[in-house]
Write a structure and sequence with these properties.
mainly alpha; 23 helices; about 0% strand
């Protein structure tokens, strides 16, 4: 692997923090869980405050701040076992459990503004920590462009919306765990010991518990084990034992989901949305790639240079890049096989959030082969494009709109000419109407411009930062002890 000076690594940290602070000031909202986020948060809230997994009352507590969501009366939609319908995996709730345990003696419902905003700020901070780790990973392959690639990904993916505008969804924790899997896989991919394989399996299981489709990250260790097995001519028993350690670690976490499915739906394995939700012939690969309504080219263009950068990397580091490419291709296949490939009423191609660490590596590698002016021009263009979509994409229905959801899932889309014309006209607001373009409603800067002090924003961020620091110290101590044990 390419070596790099530790001083260069630490010089990059202030850049990442500065970008995060600007994004937080312009974007961060006063958050209250609704829609998908209400389900994710309800797992943690119900366990800590009620000591059960009956989520109906938790959903009802989210209704006052979300009238559209309340009108759905989701607490009345029951499964055959008497529980509410819950299509969502429980893993994202893990991030809020420690905070809610601490906050429980001082709150009555878990839906008080400071409790919620601190939980949201905690997720936001986890996101920037993940980007810092992504930068360290990409330095191994493209040290000269790792910082620029990281800053680009911080501003030109759907994670920008879910990190700052709606952090109660599962996309930030999904990206965080995917980054940890990639980081740990790269650290142990030479000669892993059994307990290292178990820990990697547990990380894979946690990723799957957050978003089921993250199971494809198992390709990374599987490819490595098979590669080493063939190169070293390992005996089948040794290779099988390595796979077994990973499987045991993953199962120890995934069994939580299996038990919840059994409780909620009466089956150990199910598709909560119904069997017709997935068509394994990948019937929607064309719109996923080409549609003006949330297609990759129109809404997530950094996907392409990131993917091609991994192809470039595969020429010199096939053992690393090929399994990364396989993971991305499998995620594309899964998303193209899902009836709501567009992600419902959410922002952008959010279901590719867990692939951001892989795409960042590829993007850094590709940038290293480009002239300096092209690097910065491409970065600025991609970030302006994503910010324009974040600011106007949902509110102005750029590119198209959802026509209906369950059970038929239909959408409409505009022509390329209409989409590009609208996108260009809104992008000019960056100069002609800077406050409207750059400062989003409810953000700290917007609050200040309205003559108020963003006390809730600042207080929640400070509390979340302190809590994250404590968790980090505890985690570092546990990690050090685990590594020092024979």
């Amino acid at each position: 692997m390419t070596s790099y000076a530790p001083t260069a690594r630490y010089r990059a940290v202030p850049i990442i923090i500065a970008v995060f602070c600007v994004q937080w000031l312009l974007l961060s909202a006063i958050n209250h869980p609704s829609w998908d986020g209400a389900y994710y948060y309800s797992y943690a809230r119900s366990l800590v405050y009620d000591g059960d997994l009956h989520l109906a009352n938790d959903l009802q507590l989210s209704y006052p701040a979300a009238p559209d969501f309340a009108n759905k009366n989701n607490h009345l939609k029951l499964t055959p076992t008497g529980h509410i319908e819950n299509f969502f995996a429980p893993g994202a709730a893990v991030q809020w459990l420690p905070w809610l345990v601490v906050a429980r003696p001082f709150s009555h419902t878990g839906y008080e503004p400071l409790v919620l905003q601190t939980a949201a700020a905690f997720t936001t901070l986890l996101g920037v920590c993940a980007f810092g780790l992504m930068m360290q990973i990409s330095r191994r392959f493209a040290p000269s462009t790792a910082v620029l690639a990281t800053v680009t990904m911080m501003g030109c993916t759907p994670l920008l919306f879910y990190q700052f505008r709606d952090p109660f969804y599962a996309h930030v924790p999904s990206a965080v765990v995917a980054t940890l899997v990639l980081f740990y896989w790269l650290r142990i991919e030479q000669k892993p010991r059994p307990r290292q394989l178990v820990l990697l399996g547990m990380l894979l299981g946690l990723g799957t518990l957050i978003r089921w489709q993250s199971v494809v990250y198992g390709v990374l260790p599987a490819f490595t084990l098979l590669w080493h097995g063939v190169q070293a001519r390992q005996k089948f028993r040794r290779l099988a034992a390595s796979f077994l350690w990973i499987a045991l670690g993953a199962f120890a976490i995934v069994v939580i989901q299996l038990m919840l499915w059994k409780i909620y739906y009466g089956n150990w394995i199910t598709i909560p949305q119904g069997d017709s939700f997935i068509n394994w012939r990948a019937s929607w690969w064309r719109p996923l790639l080409f549609s003006r309504f949330r297609g990759i080219i129109a809404w997530f263009p950094v996907f392409l240079p990131g993917f091609f950068g991994l192809i470039v990397l595969a020429k010199r580091r096939p053992r690393i890049a090929i399994p990364m490419l396989i993971v991305i291709c499998l995620q594309f296949y899964i998303n193209a096989s899902t009836r709501d490939w567009f992600g419902g009423g959410g922002f952008g191609l959010r279901r590719f959030s867990s692939e951001i660490p892989l795409l960042l590596v590829g993007y850094a590698v590709l940038l290293a082969r480009l002239p300096m002016m092209v690097r910065y021009g491409l970065t600025l263009g991609l970030m302006l494009h994503q910010w324009t979509l974040l600011r106007y994409g949902l509110s102005e229905k750029l590119g198209g709109r959802v026509v209906s959801m369950i059970p038929d899932f239909r959408w409409s889309e505009d022509s390329w000419a209409t989409f590009l014309s609208q996108l260009g006209s809104y992008a000019t607001n960056a100069v002609t109407r800077p406050r409207d373009f750059w400062v989003l409603h409810g953000s700290p800067v917007a609050t200040l411009l309205d003559g108020e002090w963003p006390a809730l924003h600042l207080g929640a961020l400070a509390m979340a930062a302190a809590f994250l620091a404590v968790c980090g110290l505890i985690g570092a101590a546990a990690w050090h002890r685990w590594r020092s044990d024979p």
